[in-house]
Amino acid sequence: MLVLVDQDQTLADFGAGFDRRFLAAHPDAPRAPRAEADSYWIEDSYPPQWHERIRAVSTRAGFFRDLPPLPGAREAMEAMLDAGHDVRICTAPVRAYRHCVREKYEWVEEHLGLSWTERLIVTRDKTLVAGDVLIDDKPEVVGTFAHPGWTHVYYRTRYNRDLPGRHLDWSGWSGVLADVEAERTARGALLLPRLADARTPASTHRRAPTPARAPRALTLPATGPDRASVTLR
């Protein structure tokens, strides 16, 4: 399958990084650990007077680059490739993107390896990206298309645990993806069957060159009185 994997709070521990930076900058702030949050939106856990300071945290240099990886993330990404899935990271930058986009690439290189930067898709609208499955912690991924082509599988968190649908974490992803694969295959919606060599992305697979053909000879009837034919090569 073509598997799209979110970056923040799916591969990188956004919550832990936020808690550390926010409390370091504001030791007098209320304690609201992201691991205990019932809402995806951080502002919902704090009084309104803290909201601007909350939004400022992720715009600072180093925030995205320094996020810790979630346990088992790298191993799962490599295992999905070994299982024949074409795996891409599909991540949305914050609107104040000055540091964010570059640091997302730096994070991927440091924690997954340089080759994974070739598999990184940065977009504000994930509904425009083709895929069989999107693994994402966000409760609702919205954009241009109300019904994207991929199947949304939730990366398990406290704030999405009660939502209907499939959930996984990196300790148990294979069975969930197998179920999605079977379901999409049954209804003829599978975009990409498993690959023999998933470490070469499908988009870079090249067709074998077509052998050169000798030019055809074209014989035209003559129109003159001798009626001799003319051969063009």
UniProtKB/TrEMBL annotation:
<dbReference type="GO" id="GO:0008253">
    <property type="term" value="F:5'-nucleotidase activity"/>
</dbReference>
<dbReference type="InterPro" id="IPR036412">
    <property type="entry name" value="HAD-like_sf"/>
</dbReference>
<dbReference type="GO" id="GO:0009223">
    <property type="term" value="P:pyrimidine deoxyribonucleotide catabolic process"/>
</dbReference>
<feature type="region of interest" description="Disordered">
    <location>
        <begin position="199"/>
        <end position="233"/>
    </location>
</feature>
<comment type="similarity">
    <text>Belongs to the 5'(3')-deoxyribonucleotidase family.</text>
</comment>
<dbReference type="InterPro" id="IPR010708">
    <property type="entry name" value="5'(3')-deoxyribonucleotidase"/>
</dbReference>
<feature type="active site" description="Nucleophile">
    <location>
        <position position="6"/>
    </location>
</feature>
<dbReference type="InterPro" id="IPR023214">
    <property type="entry name" value="HAD_sf"/>
</dbReference>
<dbReference type="Pfam" id="PF06941">
    <property type="entry name" value="NT5C"/>
</dbReference>
<keyword id="KW-0378">Hydrolase</keyword>
<feature type="active site" description="Proton donor">
    <location>
        <position position="8"/>
    </location>
</feature>
<protein>
    <submittedName>
        <fullName>5'-nucleotidase</fullName>
        <ecNumber>3.1.3.5</ecNumber>
    </submittedName>
</protein>
<feature type="compositionally biased region" description="Low complexity">
    <location>
        <begin position="199"/>
        <end position="223"/>
    </location>
</feature>
